[in-house]
Amino acid sequence: MKILIDMGLSPEWRKTFESHGFEASHWSEIGNPRAEDREILSWAREHGFMVFTHDLDFGHLLALTMLRVPA
Asked: Is the pTM higher than 0.85?
């Protein structure tokens, strides 16, 4: 499983996930820290990552697109 850690969470989460055998990246290592949620979700989908976030907007975006994975 590959996990993309959202900007609203500390990059320190990466160590936690990796210590349990997961591949993890923080968005700040990948894209613009000011990117909109749609861009982050799109990148995650294209690269096979799930998004770890504290931001309720992501669930709303998934509901609007009626997809089961990030779009």
From this structure: no
Q: What is the pLDDT along the chain (71 residues), one digit of tens a residue?
A: 999 999 999 999 999 999 999 999 999 999 999 998 889 988 998 999 988 887 656 565 555 555 555 44
Please tell me the distance from the alpha carbon of residue 63 to that of residue 30, in angstroms, as a whole number.
25
User: How many domains in the chain?
Assistant: 1
Residue 71 placed within a domain: no
Backbone angles phi, psi at 14, to 5 degrees: -55, -45
Displacement of CA 21 from its chain's centroid (Å): 17
**Amino acid code (one letter) for 49:** F
Domain range for residue 34?
A: 2-65
